[in-house]
């Protein structure tokens, strides 16, 4: 992970420095940050997310839909960030975001005897790069609350079609062994006749989704979002998992400022 981060920083800085003199200084100066609170949109919605665990019902979670910024601090949906560098093409931030994974043993008879797996808050680095018609987002985060003690790296590429009404995307998600073990593993004290011990390994999931934005009443927008996630074999082989993929559906209404 450290080598990946080092190479990413190195390539980024070399590109910035070769673009024009003083690029790195301008990048870290982030001169275009707003001096007052700037709301881009504000609203509310809900997510229905499949959980891959055997016998566990889908989650339905109400969510705020907020995009706002004050100087270098911003909130974008479920991510709180602090901008460490920004220009017209790239933004780099320190980020924090909730990890709404896990379960309670009484969520399903099939999980009886398991210890609860708790949600957490991940923190790390986030990058947004814009070039021509595509936007690339990359995050590198680690557990900050000591729950799963793991790491995750994600890369998502998206594009806007029909003046931003349709936004398809695809991506990949690497999750470390510690994260996989915590959320999908079975410890020796959790073994049952039909549930052997299980210790996972690093995993890579692949995602594809799209967002539809339907404007109405001048400044209001209805947002619909669908995402498919293909689970790595490491996850599918867990004795407490009975799906090879998950779906997530989200919807809401926002006011654009």
CATH topology: Porin
What is the name of the CATH superfamily? monomeric porin ompg
Which structural class fits the helix and strand makeup? mainly beta
CATH class: Mainly Beta
Mean pLDDT: 89
Could you say what the CATH architecture is? Beta Barrel
- Tally of separate helices: 4
Please indicate the count of domains. 1
Task: Draw up the topology in text.
Blueprint: H1 2-19, H2 23-29, E1 38-49, E2 59-70, E3 73-76, E4 79-86, E5 90-99, E6 120-131, E7 134-143, E8 151-159, E9 166-175, H3 177-184, E10 203-216, E11 220-230, H4 233-236, E12 245-256
Antiparallel strand pairs: 1-2, 1-12, 2-3, 3-4, 4-5, 5-6, 6-7, 7-8, 8-9, 9-10, 10-11, 11-12
Structural account:
The chain is mainly β. The protein has a single domain (34-256), classed as monomeric porin ompg (Porin), CATH 2.40.160.40. 14% of the residues lie in helices and 48% in strands. The protein has 4 helices and 12 strands. A 12-stranded antiparallel β-barrel has the order 1-2-3-4-5-6-7-8-9-10-11-12. Strand 8 and strand 9 (166-175) form a beta hairpin. It is globular and about 60 Å long. The model has no long low-confidence stretch (mean pLDDT 89).
Give a summary of the structure in a few sentences.
This protein has 257 residues and is mostly beta strands.
For this entry, give a set of tags.
257 residues; mainly beta; Porin; 4 helices; 12 strands; 14% helix; globular
């Amino acid at each position: 992970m450290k080598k990946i981060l080092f190479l990413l920083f190195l390539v980024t800085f070399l590109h910035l420095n070769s673009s024009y003199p003083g690029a790195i200084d301008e990048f870290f100066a982030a001169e275009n940050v707003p001096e007052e609170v700037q709301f881009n949109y504000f609203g509310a919605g809900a997510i229905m997310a499949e959980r891959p665990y055997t016998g566990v019902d889908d989650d339905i979670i109400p969510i705020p839909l907020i995009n706002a910024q004050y100087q270098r601090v911003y909130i974008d949906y479920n991510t709180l960030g602090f901008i460490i560098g920004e220009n017209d093409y790239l933004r780099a931030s320190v980020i924090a975001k909730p990890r709404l994974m896990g379960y309670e043993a009484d969520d399903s008879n099939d999980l009886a005897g398991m210890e609860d797996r708790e949600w957490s808050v991940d923190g790390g680095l986030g990058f947004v790069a814009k070039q021509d018609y595509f936007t690339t987002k990359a995050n590198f985060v680690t557990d900050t609350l000591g729950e799963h003690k793991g790491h995750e790296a994600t890369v998502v590429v998206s594009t806007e079609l029909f003046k931003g009404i349709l936004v398809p995307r695809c991506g990949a998600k690497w999750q470390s062994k510690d994260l996989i073990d915590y959320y999908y593993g079975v410890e020796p004290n959790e073994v049952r006749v039909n549930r052997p011990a299980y210790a996972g390994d690093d995993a890579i999931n692949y995602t594809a989704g799209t967002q539809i934005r339907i404007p109405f009443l001048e400044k209001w927008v209805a947002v619909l979002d669908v995402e498919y996630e293909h689970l790595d074999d490491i996850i599918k082989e867990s004795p407490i998992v009975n799906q090879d993929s998950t779906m997530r559906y989200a919807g809401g209404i926002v006011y654009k400022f």
